[in-house]
Amino acid sequence: MSEWGNTNDQTELYMKVLISIHKMESFLRTAENTVLKKYQITPMQLGVLDTLSQKGELMIQTLIDEMASTSGNMTVVIRNLDKAGYIYRKSDPSDKRRCVIGLTESGRMKLEEIMPEHMRNVADVLETMPDERKRMLIEIIDSYLA
Predict the structure, then answer these.
(1) Confidence of residue 8 (pLDDT cuts 50, 70, 90)
(2) The predicted structure's pLDDT at residue 93
(3) Could you report the per-residue pLDDT of 80-99, keeping only the tens digit for each?
């Protein structure tokens, strides 16, 4: 019996899963930040630029949903990207209360500047994991979040 009540093999397994996920996330963030710090951009900002590059103009709520973010965090990210000139905001023609976000030419150039080095860094971090395990990891995470 631990200080948190009865422990069993299942409880230990839950904790091992949680700790492993946290370690992997920390490992990936550390590796990712080595490149992104150089370009003075955060992972969330890069994600927004990449999402806008792939999908075109989006409403803020769609960006929040796409990136699994909170409205408070996304507000700060959008404000900083707008201030840097990487995105633009405009009113939704069908509903003036809503805002549409798009990528500026400066934002596209910033993304093109960062992505080659960022992708090389990601490849360096993940290359030791066999492709089959990468696909399995994606499948496990996607099925859990669905």
Answers:
(1) confident
(2) 82
(3) 999 999 999 998 788 888 88
Q: What is the DSSP track for 82-128?
A: HHHTSEEEEEETTEEEEEEEEE-HHHHHHHHHHHHHHHHHHHHHHTT
Q: Which residue, 127, 63, 70, is CA-closest to 101?
A: 63
Confirm if 115 and 123 have CB atoms less than 8 A apart. Answer: no
**Predicted pLDDT at 5:** 62
Q: How far is the C-alpha of 53 from the C-alpha of 107, rounded, in Å? A: 9
> Token pair for residue 94?
């069908």
Task: Give whole-number Cα distances, 115 to 32, 82, 109, 136, 146, in Å.
Answer: 11, 20, 10, 25, 28
Per-residue tokens: 106: 């400066």
Q: How many residues does the chain have?
A: 146
